[in-house]
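Lecture notes, continued. The same structure-token format from the folding unit now serves as the input rather than the output. Read the line below as a description of shape only.
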């Protein structure tokens, strides 16, 4: 019940969130942009962002793995990668206050998407749902997501459901042309009867929600 149906392969995504020391964010981003390619040589990076609104001094990055054995092999390889250890890991470690990671699957009805163009902003929305998993709230949650998609003001990138971490957590990654474009779209959506009805049904299963506006780094595949 905690997991419910998921895609029929072993692919999962590790979602990492770092709290960076406030005075060190500029230095942290410079190091990441310069040296992250050492880490990217070992496994696929989906995206790397820093928070602009909704959270302070946080960075989010998502890594794709074929299965858990793949992740184990990658972790072993980077532990023995002297360039990664010397130029990236050792440089950012003193700049970070806290690290958090989760393993998550894309929900079965979602494929990882891409924005229609570069230069926009991303919105990371975390929903803490009631215990019971998608068997309880999956259909209603999907209807609410689709209702927002159908308004046309925003682009869905991915919907991730946790497997390790706080369970019954769903992260939704959206792309918008700009914060103002997103604000205008949200205003219109709140006046759309289809969206209102779908959201009203979905929030019956909602415990909490948090939104963070994200800016992609230069090194991020998703820009």
């Amino acid at each position: 019940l905690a997991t419910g149906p998921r895609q029929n392969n072993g692919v999962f995504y590790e979602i990492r969130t770092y709290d960076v020391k406030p005075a060190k964010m500029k230095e942290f981003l410079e190091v990441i942009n310069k040296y992250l390619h050492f880490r990217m040589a070992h496994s696929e990076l989906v995206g790397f962002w820093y928070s602009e609104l909704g959270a302070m001094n946080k960075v989010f990055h998502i890594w794709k793995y074929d299965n858990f054995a793949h992740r184990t092999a990658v972790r072993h390889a980077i532990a023995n990668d002297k360039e990664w250890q010397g130029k990236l890991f050792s440089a950012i470690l003193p700049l970070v206050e806290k690290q958090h990671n989760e393993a998550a699957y894309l929900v079965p009805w979602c494929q990882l998407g891409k924005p229609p163009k570069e230069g926009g902003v991303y919105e990371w929305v975390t929903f803490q749902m009631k215990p019971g998993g998608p068997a309880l709230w999956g259909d209603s949650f999907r209807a609410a997501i689709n209702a927002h998609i159908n308004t046309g003001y925003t682009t869905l990138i991915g919907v991730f459901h946790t497997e390790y971490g706080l369970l019954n957590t769903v992260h939704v990654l959206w792309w918008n042309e700009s914060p103002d474009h997103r604000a205008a779209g949200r205003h219109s959506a709140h006046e759309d009867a289809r969206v209102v009805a779908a959201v009203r049904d979905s929030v019956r299963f909602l415990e909490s929600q948090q939104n963070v506006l994200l800016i992609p780094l230069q090194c991020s595949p998703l820009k």
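Point for the exam: The domain at 106-216 is CATH 3.30.70.100 (Alpha-Beta Plaits).
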